Structures are given as structure tokens and as C-alpha cells.
């Protein structure tokens, strides 16, 4: 296909495709004349992946470049090549400085969360950004005097793992690596708002039952 067709099918402008080519995110096409090149389905898959990383995932050009470098490196297995995208997604949280009074609590919570996941049989790298994000959330809870013990977090983990397993069952339907990475980004970024919304709706329903609203779950009315 020509550049214009690649642009149309990929859902981005010709100028954007040229930008990705200049940045090295998209491989050059096969030259057919001095001014024209042909592009194949592999270019279209890569273009869609780039768009997902940058627009859905909110990554920088350098972060997208890092993801694609790992994806193209046969030294890595599918776990690393798909998982690298999740590591580049926000938030990126760093522990407090050693001089920060909060650092002792951070180290305590980090160890507890790491040990909890190990006890549950989860295979998680200590450098996982999500582990730092979990630590930050629990540190904040405890600092404010709210419940955030190991058993509290365990209950949430036990609920989340089957959901993650189901999502990866769906992602395994994408044998092509670029499509699998794109699906991983989409399921992470687009389903997290769904999980949050359902949790809040569940809160509303539980509250209605708890405080005797009649009927406990009235039909939704139009705004």
C-alpha cells in the first residue's frame, strides 16, 4: 500500500506517519521510486500499536521507542515483550528520599506488600511500577489513619487476580506480537475506568441496602 492508504487504514494523518518514520518508530517502506515506497500489513500493525502506545497509553516518544525495542528483540520472551508496555504506563512513582521521615514507613509497607504477593504465589518483579503505586497508596492510607493492613489488601488481590487471568485469556487470542501489546495497553488503560465505575456503583447499591432505601435499587432515571 502507498503512504496515503497506510494513513487512512491506520487512522492517523500522513504527516503523523512521516513523523513516526523520522523518529524511527515505524520502519521505512520498500522503495518503488525515488519518491514513493510500498508498505505492508506489518507496517499497519506497527502503526496501530504506536497509536495505542501514544494516545491510549499516554507514553512519550522515548517510552514508545523503548517498548518497541523490547518487542523487536528476540532475546526476550513473550512475557517481557508484552509486559514492557505495562511498565511504561503511568503512574511512575519513586520512593521517598532516604532523609524523608516517611521513608521508614515506605520500606515497611513495600516489604509487606512484596511478601504478601509472594505468599499468594504471584510472580512479580520488585521493580514493577504497580508495586510502587500500591506501596504509595497503602502508605497514604496508614498515614491518614485509615485501614490498610495486609489482610485488607489481600482481599482486594484475591478479587483482582481472576479478572486479570480472564483478560489475559482474551489477549492470548492475539498471536501477533504487535496486536497482543496493543491489546495489553487497551485492556489496562480502558478497563481501569470501568473497574472504578463498577466499584462506585457497588458502593451506592450496598449503601442503599444498608440504610434501608426503598426500593433498595430503584431503576435509573434519565438525567
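^ C-alpha cells above, recovered residues below v
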Amino acid at each position: 500500500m502507498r503512504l496515503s492508504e497506510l494513513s487512512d487504514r491506520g487512522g492517523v494523518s500522513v504527516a503523523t506517519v512521516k513523523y513516526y518514520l523520522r523518529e524511527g518508530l515505524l520502519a521505512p517502506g520498500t522503495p518503488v521510486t525515488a519518491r514513493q515506497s510500498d508498505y505492508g500489513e506489518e507496517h499497519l500493525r506497527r502503526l496501530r500499536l504506536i497509536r495505542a502506545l501514544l494516545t491510549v497509553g499516554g507514553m512519550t516518544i522515548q517510552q514508545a521507542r523503548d517498548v518497541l525495542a523490547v518487542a523487536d528483540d528476540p532475546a526476550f520472551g513473550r512475557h517481557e515483550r508484552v509486559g514492557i508496555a505495562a511498565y511504561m504506563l503511568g503512574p511512575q512513582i519513586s520512593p521517598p528520599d532516604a532523609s524523608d521521615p516517611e521513608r521508614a514507613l515506605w520500606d515497611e509497607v513495600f516489604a509487606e506488600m512484596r511478601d504478601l504477593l509472594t505468599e499468594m504465589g504471584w510472580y512479580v518483579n520488585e521493580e514493577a511500577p504497580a508495586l510502587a503505586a500500591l506501596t504509595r497508596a497503602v502508605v497514604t492510607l496508614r498515614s491518614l489513619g485509615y485501614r490498610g493492613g495486609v489482610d485488607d489488601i489481600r482481599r482486594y488481590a484475591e478479587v483482582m487476580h481472576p479478572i486479570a487471568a480472564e483478560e489475559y485469556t482474551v489477549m492470548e487470542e492475539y498471536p501477533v506480537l504487535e496486536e497482543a501489546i496493543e491489546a495489553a495497553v487497551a485492556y489496562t488503560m480502558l478497563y481501569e475506568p470501568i473497574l472504578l465505575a463498577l466499584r462506585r456503583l457497588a458502593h451506592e447499591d450496598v449503601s442503599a441496602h444498608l440504610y434501608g432505601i426503598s426500593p433498595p435499587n430503584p431503576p435509573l432515571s434519565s438525567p
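The two ends are 48 Å apart (CA to CA).
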